[in-house]
Design a protein that fits this description.
Layout lengths: L15 H29 L4 E2 L5 E2 L27 H4 L1 H10 L11 E4 L12 H17 L10 E4 L45 E3 L13 E3 L26 H12 L4 H14 L9 E6 L23 H14 L5 E6 L2 H14 L4 E4 L23 H15 L4 E4 L4 H13 L6 E4 L6 H8 L3
Parallel strand pairs: 3-4, 3-6, 5-6, 7-8, 7-10, 8-9, 10-11
Antiparallel strand pairs: 1-2
Helix pairs in contact: 3-5, 4-5, 5-10, 6-9, 10-11
Length: about 450
Amino acid sequence: MEAKTSPNRGTPNNSPRASSLTQFRMIVISVTCATLLSVVNNIIMPNDRLSSSGNRSHDIPQIYPKTSKKLTKDQHINTFWWPSPEEYGGILGKIHDFQNPSDCSAASAKFFVWRSKSDNENDTRGLTAWAHAASSHMLHALTDADQPEAGHRILINDDKLFPMAKGCEHGPETRECYFEPLTNCKLSDVDDYETADPKSSNIKILSKTDEEYDRNVRTLYTSDSIWFRKVKDMYSWTGLGFNSQHSTIHMTAASLAYYFRVKPWLRKEIDERLRRNIPLDLNPQRTIGVPIRRSDKCHGHALEGSASGELECPPLEEYLKKVKEFLEFDPRIENVIVTSEDKSACEEFLEILNKELPSLRVIQNIGDVQQGTGSGSKLEAYTEGSSNAQVVASALTSLHMHMRARYFVLTSKSTWTSTIAVMARVYGFATEVIVFDIGPNKNTFSNLARRGCA
């Protein structure tokens, strides 16, 4: 029987030669497509992009990788992860760009110098109180106090002692002991008010937070108060329009994320603690976070050197009640993360949990110094043998642990626990964050923590 032939090739369809030719054609097509894709990538990315008109634009800064690291966040369930400008872009990337100009000596560069208190050695602010002040000063700088049309300022902190950095073994005794600088500019780039002509028009020192000033002044200094000016329009500097069109919580969280970029040595320390504390099989969607804030936060405490109390601290039974309500709402909950700077309160609550809810897996910050205060001026004095660095590493580990929870029981009267909730809502590992606030405060930041909007 005569074999059928291909009308185009004159070769039998089922012959070895036909099969080889087919395979060869497939290989050529595959290689050609891959080569073409590589050529297109090399021509268009990453050094230039096509504009909306189809023309190439070569002046767009490239600080972001082609593949977003956000896709790998879930792989860091028990290792260090924190949002970075390179990874997230958006508001966080915009803050990074404005804070790190290519030329700090340019005539157009204007500065906002964040001054320490005159008695800064006794400044009792804790980690998140400092971060909250930085966030507010950052928005003042970026909007030049609600006048972005005048240009933005670069926020830079002074080099005075940062109380929590006393005895720093990893750098200067400033916030840079623990955190990356706010800017690539140096204090040598600003106009020094101590050496400048008192009549200089390049310098202005604010006497109070809401004092008006000439926006043409090159170097503006904050007052030495712990407070800050409240910016009304926090978005127009981005070019995205006004506040009414956007979310307050995303701007707030981005500025806090920028502030809390830790130095490599501290990143390594937090990473080691997370590996020790967070189980690999932890599911953030099925986890409650209970950051108990007590000690110096409570009215009537007797801790010398700490800030005065601000809250009638809720009984631990109130925390338990809300944990049970979450369990009734979502029976799939498996874990509860419990942390506190107050060792006795933490141990007592763990005993209650073990008795009342023995099926819940309890996750603790093992190795936490639990210094017994959230105030920052004398951290080393509260726990024998502990250093400031160990206290800061312990506290930030607790913050990172709670980023892996979905449900929270907290007191928004505390800036610490409010910050945990705000960061978990925007950058956390779980979706649909829900908060029970058992010690409510009445301000914008508390609202962001409690319900996610102002």
